[in-house]
Design goal:
Enzyme class: oxidoreductase
Family: Belongs to the prokaryotic molybdopterin-containing oxidoreductase family.
Bound molecules: iron/sulfur cluster
Strand order of the largest sheet: 5-4-16-15-14-6-7
Strand content: 15-25%
Helix content: 25-40%
Number of helices: 25
GO molecular function: 4 iron, 4 sulfur cluster binding; formate dehydrogenase (NAD+) activity; metal ion binding; molybdopterin cofactor binding; NADH dehydrogenase activity
Structural class: alpha/beta
CATH class of the largest domain: Alpha Beta
Keywords: 4Fe-4S, Iron, Iron-sulfur, Metal-binding, Molybdenum, Oxidoreductase
EC number: 1.17.1.9
């Protein structure tokens, strides 16, 4: 028997835990602790423990598929590439759109970006950060000049006060939740504001439930209290921030007095005052948020408000402080860093900057140039263009994304995909989206290739190959390179390894300049920015100065605005959506992991006990949830652990898809949809 252990990085959430894959006779059969990673010190959550189970699922795609007369038939790689090249050559650049992925490596995101901008010459490329943290990128960049989590995961344990708003950390980032426990054991006060009494809330010294979509009012109230009591960090504010007087005028207005915000948010005035005192007087205070803050039509406003609070209290560039935006998927930070966004190349270098455009065009060496130096469409805008302006976009290349379960208003998403003349999907399973494709390309998972991913704390870490891909499946970067070759651009995609691609990325990306595989192979890896080969990396951003050219942080006065859709007589409840401990994103991997699927085999809707009584609904009874966009039949979970008037559904489950109900209303800047608040009615079936 041949047995080996291959150290790698978890393919699920953005925490970036390390573990060993156990490989027996060439096949991955289990996971074992790897204790040298400082992030998780050998511990993993249930998803990480069973991260081997989907790898050899019988559902894995093993051959290219081409749809003929409405049915998939197996094809050779050459047949698939020939068809893709013939079709994509027939479209104008701006008729093509590409979706990259938070599930694949940095190297593969970079190559799809290069394929889009260099081979297809389209400016339309995006990925699922649009659905989770696009508002973080825009909001934190406006506040600090850099749109990423400011502090490190280890740093959370050092904090003297941890304020969690819009994050169920213990279920979504369990090993970051462990740092909150360590902070608590070190004497920190823990504050959790959430519409649900989550496992995270159960750790809190102060918990308050509130209405989804009232975050700005709550944060303004806390800042108003801090200023009225003189708890702001006057030195930090005077030396390092712009916009204080305007912010002060807004947050100290009567609208945001605790007694008034109690009426808006449902949080008792006394709890708001206590939270303000704890945050304002702590030696250090870390703010943690996730999609509860970002997935709103005011997502950018929400993010800027978290930044305002942390600047006001001097918790930027400070150990134990920071705006800790917890990224959902393993490599959503990396996909953004790699320029799989419609407005930037790698390292957030702007597409519309002529010098940047020339730098990439020169480095890549396409004889016929690259896409125009213009911003492209966000994924949510692509789907709206498909339905509202048929014929403008004609072809799409999707790598590792599943919009047919992850996008808002799935009826609209399905209608959008149906408008395409030609759709290519590159994935490891025949997902709900792949079923709509004209060509499906069988790809590889994290256990079958080498590469890097960048976790939520900007730590760049390695994946290592543990087994061969199944059947004829190929590594994603190899597929992209072969598509480029079929289109006539083999010379621009000469790669023999992921490392060669990484070295090209590092050469073009200032924040990755000092990284190479030798350095990243160390257990602690590296945080960007890492500008030179002797630079130690940057676990905490903005020490001494922010990343704006003048080094100053920018405070933004923001007024609270309600969600795009609020309850009324016809749809009297607020629906919010999210995830659970046992599943991840659209469930394509976790629902094919026997242990995880057994634990939680289907979805549910959480209904407050009093609401359920008024509706005559018993626990576990099937109910019908309806919004203005669709209807879902789903089992009820009657509980005191959700605020009266609010309901919750996880979005992992196709048979009771929460996103049939959600609202496609977008933040005007980040174009992120409002997954966290829409109006629904619920009735017994
Ligand atoms: Fe994987 Fe996240 Fe769990 Fe760590 S906390 S094992 S990265 S899912």
């Amino acid at each position: 028997m041949d047995l080996k252990y291959v150290q790698t990085t978890c393919p699920y959430c953005g925490t970036g835990c390390s573990f060993n894959l156990v490989v027996k006779d060439g096949k991955v059969v289990g996971t074992q602790p790897y204790k040298r990673s400082p992030v998780n010190e050998g511990k993993v959550c249930p998803k990480g423990t069973y991260a081997h189970e989907f790898v050899n699922s019988p559902d894995r795609l093993t051959k290219p598929l081409i749809k003929k007369d409405g049915k998939f038939v197996e094809a050779t790689w050459d047949e698939a590439y020939d068809l893709i090249a013939q079709k994509f050559k027939s479209y104008k650049p701006d008729e093509i759109a590409c979706l990259s992925s938070a599930r694949v490596s940095n190297e593969e995101n970079y190559l799809l970006m290069k394929l889009a901008r260099g081979v297809f010459k389209t400016r339309h490329i995006d990925h699922c950060a649009r659905l989770c943290h696009a508002s973080t990128v825009a909001g934190l960049a406006a506040s600090f000049g850099s749109g990423a989590m400011t502090n490190s995961i280890l740093d959370i344990a050092e904090s003297k006060c941890v304020f969690v708003i819009g994050s169920n950390t213990f279920e979504q980032h369990p090993l970051i939740g462990r740092k909150i426990v360590q902070a608590k054991l070190n004497g920190a006060k823990i504050i959790v504001f959430d519409p649900r009494y989550t496992p995270t809330a159960k750790q809190a010294d102060l918990y308050a439930s509130f209405y989804s979509g009232t975050d700005v009012a709550v944060l303004n109230c806390l800042m108003g209290e801090i200023i009225r009591n003189g708890w702001e960090d006057k030195e930090w504010v005077s030396k390092r921030a712009k916009g204080y007087e305007e912010l002060k005028a807004t947050v100290t207005s009567d609208t945001y007095l605790p007694e008034n915000v109690e009426k808006i948010s449902g949080i008792a005035a006394a709890d708001l005052k206590t939270a303000a005192e704890w945050i304002g007087t702590a030696e250090s205070s870390a703010l943690l948020y996730s999609m509860g803050i970002t997935q709103h039509t005011v997502g950018v406003d929400n993010v800027k408000s978290t930044a305002n609070l942390q600047m006001l209290t001097g918790n930027i560039g400070r150990r134990g402080g920071g705006v800790n935006a917890l990224r959902g998927q393993n490599n959503v930070q990396g996909a953004c860093d790699m320029g799989a966004l419609p407005v930037v190349f790698t390292g957030y270098q702007k597409v519309i900057d002529e010098a940047v455009h020339k730098k990439f065009a020169d480095a890549w060496g396409f004889p016929d140039g690259i896409c125009e130096p213009k911003n492209g469409y966000e994924v949510t805008v692509m789907f709206n263009v498909l339905t509202d302006n048929p014929g403008e976009l004609k072809a799409m290349y999707i790598m590792g994304e599943n919009p047919m379960l992850s996008d808002p208003d799935l009826t609209h998403a399905e209608h959008a995909l149906e408008q395409l003349e030609f759709l290519v999907v590159q994935d490891i399973f025949l997902t709900e989206t792949a079923q709509h494709a004209d060509v499906v390309l069988p790809a590889t998972c994290y256990a079958e290739k080498e590469g890097t991913q960048t976790s939520t704390e900007r730590r760049v870490q390695m994946w290592r190959k543990a087994q061969d891909p199944p059947g004829e499946a190929k590594v994603d970067w190899q597929i992209i390179s072969e598509v480029a070759a079929a289109m006539g651009y083999a010379d621009q995609f000469p790669y023999q390894s992921a490392e060669e691609i990484f070295n090209e990325i590092a050469a073009l990306t200032p924040s990755y300049h000092g990284m190479n595989y030798e350095r990243l192979n160390r257990p602690e890896a590296l945080h960007w920015p890492c500008p030179t080969e002797d630079h130690p990396g940057t676990p905490i951003l903005h020490i001494g100065k922010c990343s704006h050219p003048d080094g100053m942080g920018v405070m933004h006065p923001i007024e609270w605005k309600p969600p795009a859709e609020v309850p009324d007589d016809e749809y009297p409840y607020i629906l919010t959506t999210g995830r659970c401990l046992w599943h991840w994103h659209t469930g394509s991997m976790t629902r094919r992991s026997a242990t995880l699927d057994t634990e939680v085999p289907t979805g549910w809707i959480e209904i407050n006990t009093e609401d359920a009584k008024e509706l005559g609904i018993a626990n576990k009874e099937m109910v019908r949830a309806t919004s203005r966009r669709g209807t879902v039949d789903v089992p009820a979970k009657v509980t005191d652990e959700i605020k009266k008037g609010v309901m919750f559904m996880p979005f992992h489950f196709a048979e009771c898809a929460a996103n049939r109900l959600t609202n496609n209303a977008l933040d005007p800047i980040a174009k992120i949809p409002e997954f966290k608040a829409c109006a629904v009615k619920v009735e017994k079936i």
